[in-house]
């Protein structure tokens, strides 16, 4: 046939080996397929299905597949868990202090008998340790408790910063008693690390000499008592000591001296009578104790203290005379400004703590103070039966009492009588170590501070006060002896309250920068 190429046997042999191999493989596969088809055709349908799936599975396994790209993984090695321990706030160590004699710089008006000793400085932490981790604002109470204050009465709302909001650093109802607020108040008011160190030393002495049941044995440390009322003197001095601890930011719940405060408060409550009076009805002591128990409640808000505090306030109001004064006995015809000063301070603390007291008690008290204070600042000590007020000694102590109480009861710092008493106070007597009078200095410190830290009165008073107190504090020995205390012997009232009362008052004066806020800003 034309155009057709025939292949003979020799040409067939010329096929390459690969072609032959493929040809044979195709034949074998065809034969295998035929055999399998025959077998599957003869087998039941379900066995055929299993066989087909098995073959497909084997084929898939033979297909090379690139593994997926894995994301970076974090390897976690789990070991035994160790509970994380919160680092405790560093507390100032209390080793024996190496003392040295630095250069002493004091005001020219101050006579210094004892050199100032440089000691380990006291650091005031932003938060004081607490039993239940309460914050500073909670520890100092809730300012909303004053929502029922009668705004028509000018005195009551103005008492010690009533209405001021609490906050970090202790700027609440009782001043700036701890944290950053305290540091700032010390700096602004003219205090220093030396004054803070003196406060700490005084509290350490008081803590070291507290009896196991919580009180202080005044007689052990030179106290002869007021008018031979020994138990009453112990009550009064316990009140002063508690106030000193409270003034530095300690209470029954917080502060490094909280256990001392708690035991003292517990002891004091046991001395309270059913009518609310602490001890016998003898002038100063019930008022001092009332002030202490009221502030202890105000700073801790402990329910167990509220009943005792309110009963004490009720007694204070019930024992007030018709002219607004107090005396050594309730509702006396004799009016005593010295005694009245402590009761007025107790009423002030009651209002700050949110306790109930009749508003007319404050109004009558202010009227009485005004009656005892002349326009030129001279202030009388007592009056009786409607007679003219009678002066007492040099009158400096009563002038200071009047200055303090006028402002706490509502007179503004520019009121004529406030100006007159402040001027007389800084003119007549400033603290000097050659003439101790802690009673007068205490009221001067409170009253002059309230005239304003930028006032000419405070500028004249502050340096003599702080330099005299720091320089005359006992520096030698140990706290178990007399270190940190003040000697009572040279003070006219020292023999009555002894070293306990003297030391408590010394601390209270150096706490003036933060113990209470300024009434007016």
Structure, described:
This protein has about 525 residues and is mainly α. It contains 19 helices and 4 strands. A two-stranded antiparallel ribbon has the order 1-2. A two-stranded antiparallel sheet has the order 3-4. Strand 1 and strand 2 form a beta hairpin. Helix 8 runs antiparallel to helix 9 and helix 10 runs parallel beside helix 12.
Name the overall outline: globular
Mean pLDDT: 76
- Count of extended strands: 4
Query: How helix-rich are the residues, as a percent range?
Result: 40-55%
| Helix and strand composition category | mainly alpha
Largest sheet: 2 strands, antiparallel
The DSSP helix count reads: 19
- Distance linking N and C termini: 131 Å
Helix and strand element order: HHHHHEEHHHHHHEHHEHHHHHH
Strand order of the largest sheet: 1-2
- Extract low-pLDDT stretches: 1-21, 67-171
Rounded to the nearest angstrom, the radius of gyration is 43 Å
What percentage of the residues does DSSP assign to strands (E)? Answer: under 5%
């Amino acid at each position: 046939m034309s155009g057709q190429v025939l292949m003979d046997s020799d040409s067939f042999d010329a096929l390459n080996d690969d072609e032959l191999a493929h040809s044979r493989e195709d034949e074998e596969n065809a034969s295998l397929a035929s055999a399998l088809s025959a077998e599957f055709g003869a087998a039941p349908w379900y066995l055929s299905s299993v066989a087909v799936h098995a073959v497909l599975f084997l084929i898939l396994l033979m297909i090379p597949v690139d593994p997926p790209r894995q994301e970076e993984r974090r390897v976690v090695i789990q070991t035994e868990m160790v509970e994380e321990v919160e680092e405790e706030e560093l507390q100032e160590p209390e080793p024996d202090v190496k003392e040295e004699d630095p250069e002493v710089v004091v005001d020219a008006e101050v006579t210094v008998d004892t050199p100032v000793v440089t000691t380990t400085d006291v650091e005031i932490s932003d938060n004081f340790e607490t039993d239940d981790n309460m914050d500073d604002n909670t520890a100092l109470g809730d300012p909303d408790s004053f929502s029922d204050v009668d705004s028509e009465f000018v005195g009551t709302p103005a008492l010690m910063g009533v209405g001021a909001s609490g906050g970090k650093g202790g700027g609440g109802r009782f001043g700036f008693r701890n944290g950053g607020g305290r540091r700032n108040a010390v700096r602004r008011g003219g205090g220093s690390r030396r004054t803070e160190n003196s406060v700490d030393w005084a509290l350490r002495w008081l803590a070291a000499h507290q009896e196991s049941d919580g009180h202080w044995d005044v007689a052990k440390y030179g106290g002869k008592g007021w008018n031979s009322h020994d138990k009453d003197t112990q009550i009064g001095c316990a009140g002063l000591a508690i106030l000193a601890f409270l003034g530095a930011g300690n209470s029954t719940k917080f502060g490094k001296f909280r256990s001392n405060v708690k035991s003292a408060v517990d002891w004091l409550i046991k001395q309270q009578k059913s009518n609310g009076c602490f001890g016998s009805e003898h002038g100063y002591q019930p008022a001092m104790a009332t002030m202490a128990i009221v502030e202890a409640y105000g700073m801790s808000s402990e329910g167990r203290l509220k009943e005792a505090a309110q009963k004490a306030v009720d007694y204070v109001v019930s024992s007030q005379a018709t002219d607004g004064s107090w005396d050594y006995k309730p509702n006396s015809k004799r009016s005593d400004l010295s005694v009245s000063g402590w009761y007025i301070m107790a009423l002030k603390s009651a209002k700050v703590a949110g306790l109930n007291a009749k508003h007319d008690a404050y109004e009558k008290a202010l009227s009485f103070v005004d009656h005892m204070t002349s326009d030129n600042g001279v202030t009388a000590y007592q009056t009786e039966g409607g007679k003219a007020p009678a002066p007492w000694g040099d009158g400096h102590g009563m002038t200071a009492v009047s200055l303090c109480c006028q402002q706490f009861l509502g007179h503004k710092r520019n009121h004529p009588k406030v100006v007159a008493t402040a001027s007389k106070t800084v003119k007549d007597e400033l603290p000097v170590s050659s003439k101790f009078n802690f009673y007068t200095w205490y009221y001067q410190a409170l009253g002059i501070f309230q005239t304003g830290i930028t006032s000419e009165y405070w500028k004249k008073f502050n340096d003599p006060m702080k330099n005299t107190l720091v320089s005359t504090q006992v520096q030698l020995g140990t706290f178990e002896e007399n270190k940190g205390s003040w000697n009572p012997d040279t003070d006219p009232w020292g023999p009555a309250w002894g070293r306990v009362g003297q030391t408590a008052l010394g601390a209270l004066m150096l706490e003036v920068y933060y113990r209470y806020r300024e009434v007016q800003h």
